[in-house]
């Protein structure tokens, strides 16, 4: 998601699987095993203490968060996730959609976010019927958004 928000002119559309929209929110809300990933990739997790060093850390987390650049999204984005995901909570997808919708301007009018969440599925979609449905939904998504084929439900 970060790439489609930071470099919008090179993308016709995007699909995100269990994507992280808010790096700080993810780091604070995921279980302890994944918390270390953001610190390795982004840097120390900001604390609530307000000093210059921590403000810089907080800004770095914002800069790396797609939700902070939602106004740049100029193409359709499909977000696929399991509603029971304990690693990347489904709130991340909701937050991204809300950020894009609240920043809607003439410039990013094609920045549409569609959420495709599956009950009882976690970080990895594993039920064969759900996987089949996900593949069909994604195929229809690309046909409508990238190939501009209109409704493909026929």
Residue ranges: pLDDT <50 for 5 or more in a row? none
Number of helices: 6
Strand order of the largest sheet: 1-2-3
- The portion of residues assigned to helices is 40-55%
Q: How many individual β-strands?
A: 3
Tell me the structural class.
Answer: alpha/beta
CATH superfamily of the domain at 2-22 and 65-145: Alpha/Beta hydrolase fold, catalytic domain
Rounded radius of gyration (Å):
17 Å
Bulk shape: flat
For the biggest sheet, the summary is: 3 strands, parallel
Mean pLDDT: 84
Written overview of the protein:
The structure is a single chain. The protein has 154 residues and is α/β, with parallel strands linked by helices. The protein is 42% helix and 10% strand. It has a 3-stranded parallel β-sheet with strand order 1-2-3, with helices on both faces. Strand 2, helix 5 and strand 3 form a beta-alpha-beta unit. The two termini are 30 Å apart. The relative contact order is 0.18.
From the structure above, extract its key features.
154 residues; alpha/beta; Rossmann fold; 3-stranded parallel beta sheet; 6 helices; 10% strand; flat
